[in-house]
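TA notes, week 10

Several of you asked for a full example with nothing omitted. So below is the full record: structure tokens for the whole chain, then the designed sequence directly under it. When grading your own attempts, check the secondary structure regions first.
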């Protein structure tokens, strides 16, 4: 780590090997803050359960990281990106999403255990992503509109909107 960089900038520096722009570092900060300061999630719960047994800090952190790696927790952003890659083009959105929903599969980045409206963190991260712009962000926004419409149609009465992981990806 470099002492002249913020935590988020160091994180990006370690991932990429180059000093990130202020915009990139700020985007990581916004994601980290929005997820860290958000109640009692699975990795926090796991660490606390392990700590309650008298295990050492390393064991608690290992358990927390293991929980965080799951597809329904910290592993979700990459799986949301995988969804965009699998869909590929705008003309495939509806058929791809319908096939998955009718097969009982989850659409990663949509729905939340607590929120029955749009996850407010998703709204913030959408704005961050739109600040970067580009075809991938435009495609993600188009996919979001279609997925929400299809979920409303196929799962009436359920409020399934983007969660923090969708735009985190």
């Amino acid at each position: 780590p470099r002492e002249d960089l913020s935590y988020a900038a160091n994180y990006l520096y370690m991932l990429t090997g180059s000093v990130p722009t202020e915009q990139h570092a700020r985007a990581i900060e916004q994601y980290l803050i929005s997820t860290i300061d958000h109640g009692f999630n699975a990795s926090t719960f796991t660490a606390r359960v392990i700590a309650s047994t008298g295990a050492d800090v390393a064991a608690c952190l290992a358990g927390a990281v293991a929980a965080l790696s799951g597809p329904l927790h910290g592993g979700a952003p990459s799986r949301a990106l995988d969804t965009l890659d699998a869909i590929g083009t705008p003309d495939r959105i509806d058929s791809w999403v319908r096939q998955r929903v009718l097969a009982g599969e989850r659409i990663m980045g949509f729905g939340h255990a607590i929120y029955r409206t749009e996850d407010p963190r998703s709204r913030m991260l959408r704005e961050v992503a739109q600040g970067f712009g580009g075809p991938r962000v435009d495609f993600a926004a188009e996919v979001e509109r279609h997925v929400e419409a299809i979920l409303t149609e196929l799962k009436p009465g359920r409020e399934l909107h983007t969660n923090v992981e969708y735009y985190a990806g």
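The two ends are 24 Å apart (CA to CA). Use that as a sanity check on your answer.
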